[in-house]
Amino acid sequence: MTRITILLWWCLLAWPLRAQVVDTWAFSSPVVKEHALSVAAKIRCPQCQNQNLLESNAPVAITMRHEVFAMTEQGKTESEIMSFMTARYGNFVRYQPELAASTLILWGLPPLMLALIGFVLWRSRSKP
């Protein structure tokens, strides 16, 4: 056998042996588990492209997910957890950032653009 054939066979046989992170977390009750999962679903992974903490297997997402689970076990509310994550990782981790001076353009630009497009369409139709 040639080296290329051996390499191809090795790659073919090694492909199903990929390692994957298995996340096991023991919750104290089903209510706490549901609360933790709902909060983790509302936080974006800072490393991935538009995945929440439950969908991502990135190392930073696993760390953040464990922090959320631990804070939930401590009895923290959703707003306390979101505030902590925002303070630590920035507004990017929130799917719906709060209305603040720093996020005003994020919330104000879509309605402004819609109004501008409507005005342009209205003006172009009213001209003879």
Descriptors:
mainly alpha, flat, 5 helices, 128 residues, 2 domains, Helicase, Ruva Protein, domain 3, 0% strand
Q: Can you put this structure into words, describing what you see?
A:
Helices cover 58% and strands 0% of the residues. The chain has 128 residues and is mainly alpha-helical. Helix 2 crosses helix 3. It folds into two domains: 21-97, Orthogonal Bundle (Helicase, Ruva Protein, domain 3), CATH 1.10.8; 99-128. The longest helix has 23 residues, at 104-126. It has helices spanning 3-14, 30-41, 59-73, 78-89, 104-126. Belongs to the CcmH/CycL/Ccl2/NrfF family. This is Cytochrome c-type biogenesis protein.
State the helicity in percent bands. Answer: 55-70%
Mean pLDDT: 83
CATH architecture field of the largest domain: Orthogonal Bundle
Distance N terminus to C terminus?
Answer: 78 Å
Summarize the structure.
The chain is mostly helical and 128 residues long.
How are the secondary structure elements laid out?
Layout: H1 3-14, H2 30-41, H3 59-73, H4 78-89, H5 104-126
